[in-house]
Amino acid sequence: MNLKTKRIRGMQDILPDEMKKWQTIEKVMTEEALIHGFKSIRTPILEHTELFERSVGDSSDVVEKEMYTFVDKGNRSVTLRPEGTAGALRAVLENGLHNSPMPLKLMYESSCYRYEKPQTGRYREFFQFGLEIFGSSSASADAQLIILAHSILERLKIKNVSLEINSIGCKNCRKKYIEAIIDYFNSKINSLCPTCKNRLTKNPLRILDCKNETCSEICKNAPIITDYICSECSEHFKILQKYLKSQNMNFKINPKIVRGLDYYSKTVFEFVCNINENETLAICGGGRYDDLSEILGGPKLCAIGLGFGIERILNIMESQKILFPKEKPPEIYIASIGEAAKEKAFKLCKTLRNAMIFAEMDIIDRNIKSQMKYADKLGAEYVLVIGENEISENKAILKNMKTSNEIEIPINENFLNDFLNISVKNIGF
Ligand code: HAM
Q: Judging by beta carbons within 10 Å of its beta carbon (0-12, 13-18, 19+), is residue 36 exposed, middle or buried?
């Protein structure tokens, strides 16, 4: 086929078989979030560019290199959201949700856009399931959120996941730490990669998670943040660990987790999963962002949240051969011969569907043999065959596709009850 146009690089079509798996993951996430008191929110895909410049940070890789930004017809700079937190908080503030009883717990599933180099688990369009808790400065909110994420991963049966946590302190203690790492990296500046040389003046924390081999080696001896955080941040971090331990949650403190987005303070964390012997991938990342509301012009509003990468979770579940529930086949296929029978099939289908029974019928004028073959392919449990004789006698043949047994069934106003009696009780044949 010589298609005239193709999909955009780094973006995926999610086809019906895959969609079913997505829905399984989304169902687990939503159900868990609901029993933790989260309510859904949906925000626009497009936001003013300045929202992300101010929140994600104009020296972050995301804002500097990865955003899909363009000028709209009204000459405004707008951006396809690269993540969900900034839009969620903007919506909270703009709609006055911060005045509602706290804590406010919100969940969303959003497509996100980052112009990154496509590779395993890295797309230019990807979906995040996000959870945000507003209005709590307590480490118990951090712990509850992490425990919720863990329950989701457990219910999805994902193996080889580890939780890594860190504290990057508040804006006050982070200042001292940044001075210390600038001093340290300045003394090694000639060995740093060109990107990190640039980061040294713009965003020195990001050097800590540079993937370049020499930079990683240099980072091994860099000062660590936990030695610099103030007593309040240190206490917060200790309490979080106490709660996690009390729930028997395994975790590792990884001082290198600084996260790629600038709005974080205090707790940051990631759930990472091995994709092969040497490589890990973050399937969920999050942290506290107590200052972001004020940065956006709102009141003080402490917050913590996380984002799951749905594609990464799906890829890992597939590679770990985790079974997804199978698509349900139709309960009944109505095969018909002739126009009068087809009209009757329409009526019966409607009756069945009104009762939430998955019913199918022919809509491409197949002959009866092909209809039976198609019903078998679909995996229909029963086939109702309505022919011309059956119409005149107001009855039809119901075939159990598993046993191949057949019985006669009236196709009058009692049809639904009769069918339910047979199918639910599985009687008669
Ligand atoms: P993030 O770590 O940038 O955090 O993204 C969250 C998750 O989205 C990652 O752990 C990863 O699974 C997935 N992800 C990120 N980039 C890509 C990509 N290019 N392709 C596929 N999956 C990707 C955030 O975005 C924060 N908003 C999370 C948060 C919520 N923090 C506080 N509240």
A: middle
Token pair of 209, please?
Answer: 């998670």
87 lines ligand 1 (CB under 6 A): no
Q: What is the band of 206 on the pLDDT scale with cuts at 50, 70, 90?
A: confident
Q: Is the CB–ligand 1 distance for residue 311 below 6 Å?
A: yes
Q: Is 268 helix (H, G, I), strand (E, B) or coil?
A: strand
Does any ligand 1 atom lie closer than 6 A to the CB of residue 283?
yes
Q: For ligand 1, say whether the CB of 60 is within 6 Å of any of its atoms.
A: no
Residue 83 CA: nearest ligand 1 atom is 25
Q: What is the DSSP annotation of 83-139? A: SSHHHHHHHHHHTTGGGSSSPEEEEEEEEEE-----BTTB-SEEEEEEEEEES--SH
How does residue 426 score in pLDDT terms, banded at 50, 70 and 90? low
234: pLDDT strictly greater than 80: yes
pTM of the model: 0.94
Q: Are 176 and 227 in contact (CB under 8 A)?
A: no
- Tokens, residue 328: 């349900």
End-to-end CA distance of the chain: 48
Kindly state the greatest CA–CA separation across the chain.
95
Q: 306 φ, ψ to 5°?
A: -150, 165
Atom 10, ligand 1: residue with shortest CA distance: 284
Question: Quick check: CB of 306 below 6 Å from ligand 1?
Answer: yes
Is residue 284 in contact with ligand 1, taking CB distance under 6 Å? yes
61 lines ligand 1 (CB under 6 A): no
User: Which helix (H) or strand (E) element contains residue 385?
Assistant: strand 382-386
Spell out where 161-279 has E strands: 161-167, 252-253, 265-274
Ligand 1: centre distance to CA 238 (Å): 25
Distance 309 CA to ligand 1 centre (A): 6
